[in-house]
Amino acid sequence: MMVSLPSLRYLVAAGVCFVCLIQIGFQSFRPSFSRLDISAVQSVQRRNLTVPLRPACLEIISKANLTDTTYVNVAGNLTEHPHVGAVDAFGKPGYVHDVTALRRNPPPSNFTDEYIAEQCQVQDDDYKMLKQRVSVDMDYENERLRSGERRPRILCMIYTYTPSHSRIKNIRETWGPKCDGFFAASDSADPFVDSVNLTHQGPESMNNMWQKVRSMWSYAYDNFYESYDWFHIGGDDLFLIVENLRRYLESDEIQAAQNGGLFISNGPERMQVPLYLGKRFRFGGRIRTIFNTGGPGYTLNRAALKLLVVDGLPHHYVHDVTSAEDIRIARVFEKLGVYPYETRDENGGERYHHYSPAFHYDFRLNKISWLSTVMIDPLEGLNHSSPHSVAFHYVKDDDMRRAYSLLYHDCPADNTVDKR
User: Fold this and answer.
1) Overall pTM > 0.85
2) How far apart are the first and last CA of the chain?
3) Residue 420 has pLDDT above 50, yes or no
4) pLDDT at 19 over 80
5) What is the pLDDT of residue 38?
6) Distance separating alpha carbons of residues 262 and 193, to the nearest angstrom
7) Which of 127, 141, 154, 411 gives 20 to 30 Å between its CA and that of 240?
């Protein structure tokens, strides 16, 4: 269900500061808030914004309609794609993975002092990015933990296939347990790596990634929608900094954005603006065609997931065969009035990165020629990446373990340095 424009009476009742909104050009911003069912969200506390959303962000969310996040069953009898679902290790259909298993029972840490010291000895660009530019504020994390307040619940989804399950093992031993829920969509079920044999239309191949992703989003909606607030999807070479992602999602900016830019709430509202977060690229150099590149993954709130699965996937590109799942997702969302949100920080630093930490350190556009045609107003130099970056791409195998050890462990004080 989507609702129409707000009335002045409702906005006054909501306690919004109209002077501030007018100053930033609110006359042209028409979010689709109307008469909300206050009884449905009476347990949620609201407060006004202290810092208004940036005009670019307001413009993006103004194009979307509010979506009722109440779950609607569209799976039918699980006989048609993309809702056929998963099969277990014995081929029995209807399998629903326990996505909390990794969070509840993470593998033991095997990052020895010797291993950490060895990784610290090479002060290359990966080291510089993860030790000097990007960080996780553990004081903030511990403070939030002590507060006992509700935090955004994130379901992390990885696409992979059987020959790459070793990559899932590395994810499970690094950032995977930090997600509130986790599963890997594969062509075989293996509970030891949380892989799910998820069926989809067409063959299991990179050239058919669109159909696999259609089934992944549908599987997440059909089985886990009401248990999570946010849903992040990416490949098996994704390095996700979950603490920074969660902090971003619970920020005043994002909480306000999914409430139409009008107010902040301490819990999920029934009516939400769909948010589609990631690293924005322009397709074919055309600024009007923008998508979130699949490399670092992209993040949806409940409203966006429901809109995609209920109103988008059944009607658009149903039988397409393509590897460009990220472009197809963007085009489906565009038909629904949802556009990639501006996720750079207040200083223009990128949060989602298409390449590895080393590649983006002291970034220069001339590193790869095609980047200049797809990136949107990127900063160069050390300020290119946000200190609170959330995702990197092309981080796999030993690089995954090294990135994790550099980001989360202190180097020995007497470490012998090999400066590269």
Assistant:
1) yes
2) 56
3) no
4) no
5) 33
6) 42
7) 411
